[in-house]
Amino acid sequence: MKISLDPNTWAMPSPVWIVGTYNKEGKPNVMTAAWGGICNSRPPSVYVSLREATYSHGNIMERKAYTVSIPGDKYVKEADYIGIASGRDHDKLKETGLTPIDSDLVDAPYVDEFPLVIECKVVRVEKLGLHTMFVGEIVGIRADEDALTNGRPDLQKIRPILFSAGDRGYHSVGHRLTDPFTQKTPTKQVP
Amino acid sequence: MKISLDPNTWAMPSPVWIVGTYNKEGKPNVMTAAWGGICNSRPPSVYVSLREATYSHGNIMERKAYTVSIPGDKYVKEADYIGIASGRDHDKLKETGLTPIDSDLVDAPYVDEFPLVIECKVVRVEKLGLHTMFVGEIVGIRADEDALTNGRPDLQKIRPILFSAGDRGYHSVGHRLTDPFTQKTPTKQVP
How many CB atoms lie within 10 A of CB B180? Predict the structure, then answer.
């Protein structure tokens, strides 16, 4: 018998992604988003959902582009700070000592220190309520060489941070459990 | 200097969620989705993105409802199987020995054995390409008592599975890193 709880954002886990944008003057800004994920395989696409009140929301509406830089868990304090302070009155990159790099594929900067970067062009904007969802087609990926295994990003090397609103915690990743798509069946899923 | 990679679904981490639906005859079906996440705080909402070819896609289009049952990592083999076999020619619940329970809030069943359940009414359907995104307003949450701490779902007790398309792996969660929103700043983020 399960316990019934009121509706809340308690699905899990959520990622901890650093969204890179330019403001009107071309100044790089970063914010932390936990409402994000992959939403389409062809064309490969992600989304981030941001409150309209955020500085980054306006930046994305203007430039129709953003990057997602994925920090390893040694950057959890920086990620937390970047999720709290606003780019309206803080240069969070300078304050945290992180380095913005201009993407040559999209009109947005990414964070050099973070091992995996997703470069996105906004293809859809959906106002859902408090949050607006920005669906971005992935037009490029950049990764540190030591974040790759056989040319593909490796979660165990990148060690992304997890967020859970239920317990209000950041969590690390653990060990590799198993390979997917290994059960013998008639239908193979493209996730 | 980062290495450039072709566009692919290599953002991380992704969740491993079991989507519960009824078919036309009211028979419960489950499928595994890794393209899912929280996309809005008010009203609290999640999405799952499914290929149009899946059985569950048709079920959701018909009933405009689904549940997300979140398995702990001891169920990784069941989750993998449920992601491969199709409900068109398999009763995956019976085959895996899992128990469907009728939600009394939405027109969909959930999995009794999994510690956390999100019950959703579909409020938006977005065809993005290969995948269709089903945005669901969360109308209820159910959890096992031993999955909660102070009445809230606790990731360390639930131990959800992570998926990463880059390394084609399922991974476990690790340890709690820190509390979020603890840096002293002028702007507090509602994530």
Answer: 23
More confident residue, A143 or A186: A143
Of the CA atoms within 13 Å of residue B139, those in its CB half-sphere come to 16
Q: How many CB atoms lie within 10 A of CB A190?
A: 12
CATH topology of domain B14-171: Pnp Oxidase; Chain A (2.30.110)
Q: Does B149 lie at the interface with A, CB-CB under 8 angstroms?
A: yes
pLDDT tens, position by position, A80-105: 999 998 999 999 999 999 999 999 99
**Interchain CB contact of A77 with B (< 8 Å):** yes
Query: Is the pLDDT at B181 greater than 90, yes or no?
Result: no
State the pTM of this model: 0.95
Task: Please report residues of B whose CB lies closer than 8 A to that of A112.
Answer: 2
Domain boundaries, chain B: 14-171
Beta-carbon separation of A186 and B89 below 8 A? yes
Task: Outline where B22-153 has alpha helix (H).
Answer: 55-63, 76-84, 92-96
Residue A139, number of CB atoms within 10 A of its CB: 17
Contact status, residue B142 vs residue A5, Cβ threshold 8 Å: yes
* Any B CB within 8 A of A26 CB: no
What is the C-alpha separation between A121 and A44, in angstroms, rounded?
11
For residue B16, how many other CB atoms are within 10 A of its CB?
28
Complex ipTM more than 0.90, yes or no? yes
